[in-house]
Amino acid sequence: MTDLATKPLRRPTGRRRGVTKPSGWWGLAFVAPATIGLGVLYVWPFLSTLVDSFQDVPAFGPATFVGADNYTALVHDPEFWKAFGNSALYTAIALLGVPVAIVLAALIEQVGRGRAIYRVLFFLPVVTLPVAIGMVWRFIYNGDFGLLNTVLSWVGVDGQFWVADPRFTIYAFGVVGIWMGLGINLIILGAGLSAIPKSVYEASALDGAGRVRQFLRITLPLLSPSIFFVTVLTVIGALQMFDLNFIMLRGVNNTALADSKTIVYLFYEKAFVQFHQGYGAAIAVVLLVVIMIATALQFRLQRSWVFYD
Amino acid sequence: MTDSTVRRGRAQRRWHLHLILAIAAAIMVVPFVWQILTVFKSTAEVTRIPPTILPHGYSLHSFETFFRTVPFWSMFAVSAGALVLRVGGQVIVAALAGYAFARIPFRARGLLLGVFLAMLMVPSQLFLIGQYGLIRDLKLLDTLPALAIPGLFSAFGTFLMRQAFRGMPDDYEEAARLDGANPVQVFWHIMLPMARPTVAALAVLTGLYSWNDLLWPLIVSPSGENRPLSVGLAGLQGQFGTDYPTLMAGAFVCSIPLVAVFLFLQRQFFAGIAGSGIKG
């Protein structure tokens, strides 16, 4: 009985594999372009950046090994700590966009007709050139004739120089960051929401659960894997913020620029404007470590709040 | 409780829902509306305190200034050319590798895949210094290929394509092989067409990054020749200082192409983001 059951099954698969699977050489040929490209343009640059971070690399001439000097200089550089703090603050503000996205995604999910229109409107910033976004918001934040101060003046609030005054710069960036990221977060959360079976809601409605209770007891736990994903992506993206910093602080008075650099802006400035490649490389390595720690920490924390079936 | 009260309650809830969402959507589009309103104003009108909300006339002066002083079409050609090169190249390279990783067993496959995965987790800044050095040494600074070359290869794209090919049934592939098709033919005529939704998603995501990217083009276009729109527009800020109508006209014109593409390919954009969920 077992013989009859297993033999006819086994033979065709064995034959198929022997005759029809292409040889491993084909596999190597197929992955060759991607692998060579990845090796030359990613793996090698990555390793050379690691090495550079222990070197003094002049714009011309050979590099010299300096041990941990770049890192020691980094630790004693107030500009680095300032940038580190700015990036951390910006990331914290960007995270406030996650609950906003959750609520909006849940609302959009309930819309029947017209859902597409909301999705398109919320997605517009994602497909708009970030440079253009920076320019428009810079104008909105303008202290003299910006839209924000005009609107505030209607309700009797004093205007501020939101970008030029370093007390506000990072917060101003944070608002733009939330605005820019919302569209992507809504799509990811929307996909998560549509995967929640409707029967769960119907069952709880029969038990007399209201909308808010359903949101807290059903939507949030069942959506938590997507929320976690969005949170991880938001942190990784926010820690790498560069575009807004570059475009909104060009030509602004020096105190705002000096006080409001992010880690990646500082990296760009050191490595590609001042050509201190070794120092720039050290900043990039620190960024890598910070992102790794932040991500690992979130994976650790998820055990206490992310709900998997 | 009668049927009609239930219905009325539902209609009311829907009304509240639309109100909240409409307010949120209005806040979302305010910057775009403000940008468009500004385009039609004169510089004097914009810098008045307090500024006017609606433009007094519909002057197209800002567009004229923008197109007269900025080589828009050549910047557009650079952006579009880099996008086509990068998207086309990456899709083919990534699909080929993704197919082999998913369906052709070969030596060291697991190890190689591990290297791809590891690179997937490294932030892009870690590659920039080395990539810049290569482009400089190849004497490619300020050229179109420089913008596209690193983006031809993508651990993310390879991985995305691998996932797509992994989920496919064996039958079609085997039937084609029995008919005597070689692996290249099987890949090109049978498997790649079946992966079309993923190819579209990858193409759209890659196009989005390519079009919007600022840091890499900034680094490899030091002289300002062959600048894409992102870098050119950034340069406008210094050039026009407080001529806000012209700045907004530039921001508007440079954003329109991708927004238009998005409006046509909404489904692919959303599928790309939802399926891969990676941020630029």
Low-pLDDT segments, ≥5 res of chain A: 1-19
- What is the H/E string of chain A? HHEEHHHHHHHHHHHHH
Oligomer: heterodimer
Specify Rg of chain A, calculated over alpha carbons.
26 Å
- Widest sheet, order of strands of chain A: 1-2
Supply the helix-strand structural class of chain A. Answer: mainly alpha
What is the percent of helical residues of chain B? over 70%
Shape, per Cα inertia axes of chain A: globular
Helix coverage percent of chain A: over 70%
Largest protein-protein interface: A-B, 96 and 101 residues
For the largest beta-sheet of chain B, the strand count, sense and barrel status come to: none
Terminal residue distance of chain A: 38 Å
Which structural class best describes the helix and strand composition of chain B?
A: mainly alpha
Number of strands of chain A: 2
Q: How are helices and strands ordered from N to C of chain B?
A: HHHHHHHHHHHHHHH
Mean pLDDT of chain A: 89
User: How would you describe the shape of chain B?
Assistant: globular
